[in-house]
Predict the 3D structure of the following.
Amino acid sequence: MVKPLLVLDDLAVHFKVGSMLAGGVKTLKAVDGVTLDVKPGECLGLVGESGCGKSTLALAIMGLLLPTHGRIHVGGQRISGDTPPDRMEMARTVQMVFQDPYASLNPRQTVRRTLADPLRLHGVKDKAEVESRVIDMMAKVGLRPEHADRYPHEFSGGQRQRIGIARALILKPRLVICDEPVSALDVSIRAQIINLLLELKDEMDLAYIMISHDLGVVEHVSDRVAVMYLGRIVEQGGWQEIFENPRHPYTRALIAAIPDPFHRAAASVARAKAKGEIPSALNPPPGCHFNPRCPLKADLCTVEAPVLEGVAPGHLAACHFRDRII
Amino acid sequence: MTPPLLKVEDLRIALAGDGVTYNAVEGVSFEIGRGEAFGLVGESGCGKSITALSVMGLLRRPLSLGGGRIVLDGQEIQDVPAAEMRRLRGKRIAMIFQEPMTALNPLSPVGRQIAEMFVLHQGAGWSEAMDRAEDALRQVRVPSPERRIRDYPHQLSGGMRQRVMIAIALACGPDLLVADEPTTALDVTVQAEIIDLIAELCAAKGTAVLMISHDLGLVANMCKRVAVMYAGRIVESQVADAIFARPSHPYTQGLIDSLPRLGERSRRGRQRLREITGVVPSIQAYPAGCRFNPRCPAVTDICRTNVPEATSLPADGLVRCHHHG
Amino acid sequence: MSMAIKLPRLRLKGGTSLWVGGGLVATAITAAILAPVIALTDPVMDANLMNAEIAPCWEYPFGTDAQGRDIYSRIVYGARISLSVGIISQVCNSLIGVTLGLTAGYWGGWWDDLVSGLTNLMLAIPSLVFALAIMAILGPGLVSLVIALGLTSWSYSCRIARAQVLSLKSQGYIQAARILGYGDLRIMFTQVLPNILGPLIVIATLGMGGAILAEAALSFLGLGIRPPFPSWGSMLSEARDQITTAPWLSVFPGLAIFFTVLGLNLLGDGLRDILDPQSTTRRN
């Protein structure tokens, strides 16, 4: 049994929003009781729409937000509400690739500086070694050595994302959180970046958490998939289980929402579509958060929140009707 | 054969730079029949959005119409005076945008903004117009429209705002709805609902749709015919089903092959994605000949020098590639 | 590349005000540095009551004052005092303002509340009145003038710095730096500061003009530079009584202040255009 690289144990991150004067303080349960693990070298796809808490979850895993309750074990470290992580140690364990390749690079730093500074900060003092690791990393992401002294605005979106990936990997982390790494790129560039990420994963033995709303991308890259809705995980399992045998109505709705020109909407797909809008995370509906939009809604759903339970080995769903197949 | 509702012929859009004028769009021609949904697909900067703006008569400096004809229902509209164009917009052609928040007036309740259309274009009184605005909200399936009618745009979610935009656009029963990336800013499950709503309402009212998007799958699902643009030109135009089954231009082919498709991995296992090499050219550096040539796997000498002519495909389709057939 | 066609136009835009402003400021600074060389007489010692209040002529291009000292020479030497007061006090203001604004914007919380409160307080009290109070305590003189002006108008730099940090804080590269293990100070100096420098430099040049005017005002009120040493403000102050009989006594120091402050303001405007990060960092 491989020891997991990352374990989230009943993790919750809550925020206080509003003020005493204007309408009172409310609790925003951005992440609410998430239990999850990622093994070394594994790719976990994390799917969800706005307000589902995936960004908050990412920040917590990187130690930038402390849990309200629950624990995070990552690498050798244990993070909880009262034990913040060692930031330097974290930096060598978890890194992140950002969505927007324009905002995520410092416009006043050359590629060389962007890559060399972190190395020096983490104790690589030898000039020649810094230089060779920078050039080596640039080659790995498909940049030429003469690119080293250029500034971000001299690059296209796809090349900028390559620089962002190089920066994330320069410290040789073991886990990389990819936050919508291709959704801000031109459609014809996306395949280059997805292929690159998959190559680097094998080459450097990385584990990924792939945050995306593009189910095609998630299915392509993931070993396992977790689906989040309003702060909770509603379904998780192997990629094939999730995409071929989804048990939560929300997962089905996500799949049904993908325009698929090869299989014109079958009747069952039409029935699986979700109604209405995503409620505010500040004021989620009682019981199962998905109940106002769910085609399977029953009285029970508005009273009792379903727990995440197994439907098959390694496949969990949080739905009162997880065994009903439509 | 009935004449088309909208006919765009040899459209050229000029972009004025410093002393140099670039052609942001050139040689773009297409037709949309009454009640037909037509899709225009391409990446950012390919000219699809400004093509839509030119149909609306909304090109602003440094962009201007450089040539070609735009015919709406037999009437040439590329040169009509601004005042008449304003009357056409809203009444005959309407538009919805990617980010509804920027298109709505933040200081006015949404009901009033819908009612304004009836007052402006149909001479209705305000109280009658407000009643009709409530009906319009009900039609776009906004829950409890009698209350929402008094809401300001910031009180609504993104999806609800887009519904309001659709209600405004369709208020006066236009012949043509131009939809520029109407769901790109929305969540996937909401996106599906909005697309269904547009398709359903336009079918019911007989409104034609010009749908602009970067998402070929989305457009192909909704539209009868699709044109693919690359670097300011239409490279291929086909019936939606055919474009996926038999893409004829290497660019279209590349787009379809390069994206991971749901279900593909369980059918065939994980294959390396087919990449389109290189980058999208910028308007100042469009290559000579076929503009896709630096990225094309089938490039030959003629592609670098000669602009390919259109070759006919079945069912009114066309492709611009030297190596077709 | 779109940059290639954008830059020339930008240079033209920033151009006029940048070059005119830069020229005026450069002239003032050159005059200050070269004062011993280009002055005709000693500004303090060469008093000669026989030559008192001569109107501008070939020998005394700007005329002479009541003690018979050459106005031109006094203005050239006065540039040394006026410009150093302007530059040094504005450097103090910028250092205080940027440090407070940067840390307040980046850290937020109680520190931000404190700094913002202090800034608002400073903005509510006219800075000249504040400077007057400090001068009253420290007594007149060059050093106290620099201290008084250097401590009283940092609130503009502070506000600008804080607002810029707030808008940058959520940028991906700041996040990335935190994830890479950068400490807060390192992030502020290597990631944030270089990207907000443009507007801060603009504010600083405008502030220098303000400080030169404030020096003139304080000296005019008799609280700044004491006679016989020349500063533009003290010269104006001394010329008060003869404004009808010998107008050149006030006109020339006044013009020196006018053109220097105008030059600094134009320079600020010009710099705003070329330092705008949008003009250099964005492709589209």
In short: The first helix of chain A runs from residue 54 to 61. Chain A has a mean pLDDT of 89. Residues 67 and 81 of chain A are 5 Å apart (CA to CA).
